[in-house]
Specification:
The chain is mostly helical. It has 19 helices and no strands. Its main location: membrane.
Length: 402
């Protein structure tokens, strides 16, 4: 009897889902009614374990570190990594947008409308990081607030010594139980992936995709180049890991991100593969990965660069070099400013367009294919999280290369 690893199982589910989705292009409602619920069940199972997994592993990691300065150092490295790779991603998106001209020949529909949401202020964002009610933060799966609470809890456990051991042992046991539950859920992954991808392909058949094929190709090409140039170089230079080994180890999480279009839903898989396949210790992975799932938006930033030029080209507006530099700065800072906000990608795009005076109506053109683009950019976001955890672990001399 043939036995397949997790990557192969997910890939089989993905390929079958695309094939069956094409058969359902004439009946997308049927795919949504009869197949999508199995995918929703898979997402619910994943979401069920996210909070206990992140909370327990981060508490154990912070308590095991026992050094506030070390946590600060890891945090500084993580933030620097995310900001630099995000800036490079949006720059790459602008370069490809200038070369491939994805908006040339497109016209805006007469009834195109878009609802613009306001981004929170910087002060509001910073204040919202600290939870007023940790239980509410866990109920709402607010990752940034859970991270802050878990770090405080872990450090406090270390400070009180022996009296904190029972609580530490509890969270240690909870972390191991959470990992086991993730393993059980992943047995259902091929069916879940299949059921998630079929309605997406059915709803976005050739008639929807072909008119905007140039935009899709530009975004997907940019994501592939970013992974090949940036992440391959970083893991090779800092961690001395071959890119082939890195992408093979990260493959289950990348495929999961592509299917679910959710960094948070992929988080349990990301945490598992970074530890088991790439040798990142829990103390680092449990900090870097949840933070990255919230604020690291390399793929989204690249998409912003392409989309900004796309909108400018549709309206016949030439963006100067200085305006494109403003886009780079805005998209990089917006990735932090919109952290943890629902619909962060759209909010980021409105901020980017407003920063250089581009019309908001242009967003309506790409709204129809946003799910297709979201699959690629989420995959890159997750890949960047995993690469970041490997790089930080290597610089802390804690990466297990064996």
């Amino acid at each position: 009897m043939l036995k397949f690893n997790v990557t192969t199982k997910i890939l089989i589910g993905l390929i079958l889902g695309v094939f069956v989705g094409l058969l359902f292009t004439s009946a997308p409602d049927a795919a949504k009614t009869y197949i999508k619920p199995f995918g929703d069940l898979f997402l619910n199972l994943i979401k069920m374990i996210i909070v206990p997994l992140v909370l327990s592993s981060l508490v154990v990691g912070a308590a095991s570190t026992g050094d506030v300065r070390k946590l600060g150092r890891i945090g500084a490295k993580t933030m620097a990594y995310y900001l630099l790779t995000t800036a490079f991603a949006v720059t790459l998106g602008l370069i490809l947008g200038n070369i491939l001209d994805p908006g040339m020949g497109m016209t805006l529909p007469q009834d195109a409308k878009v609802e613009v949401k306001q981004a929170p202020s910087v002060v509001e964002t910073l204040l919202n990081i600290v939870p007023t009610n940790p239980v509410k933060a866990m109920a709402e799966a607010n990752m940034l607030q859970i991270i802050v609470f878990a770090i405080f809890l872990g450090i406090a456990i270390t400070f009180i010594g022996e009296k904190g051991k029972p609580v530490l042992n509890f969270f240690d046991s909870l972390a191991e139980i959470s990992y086991k539950i993730v393993g059980i859920i992943m047995e259902y992954a091929p069916i879940g992936v299949f059921a998630l991808i079929v309605p997406v392909v059915a709803a976005n058949g050739p008639s929807v995709l072909l008119p905007l094929l140039k935009v899709i190709i530009t975004v997907y090409l940019g994501c592939a180049l970013h992974a090949a140039l940036v992440y391959s170089s970083l893991v090779s230079i800092f961690a001395r890991i071959s890119p082939i080994r890195f992408f093979r180890g990260a493959a289950p999480a990348i495929l999961m991100a592509f299917t679910t279009s959710s960094s948070s839903a992929t988080l349990p898989v990301s945490m598992e593969v970074t530890e088991k396949n790439l040798g990142v210790p829990k103390s680092i992975g449990s900090f870097v990965l949840p933070l990255g799932a919230t604020i690291n938006m390399d793929g989204t930033a690249l998409y912003q660069g392409v989309s900004a030029l796309f909108v400018a080209q549709v309206f016949g507006i030439n963006l100067s070099l200085s305006q494109q530099l403003v886009i780079i700065l805005t998209a990089t800072l917006a990735s932090i400013g919109t952290a943890g906000v629902p619909g962060a990608g759209l909010i980021m795009l409105t901020m980017v367009l407003q920063s250089v005076g581009l019309p908001m109506e242009g967003i309506a053109l790409i709204a129809g294919i946003d799910r297709i683009l979201d699959m690629a950019r989420t995959s890159i976001n997750v890949t960047g999280d995993i690469a970041g955890s490997v790089v930080v672990a290597a610089t802390e001399k804690e990466l297990n290369r064996t």
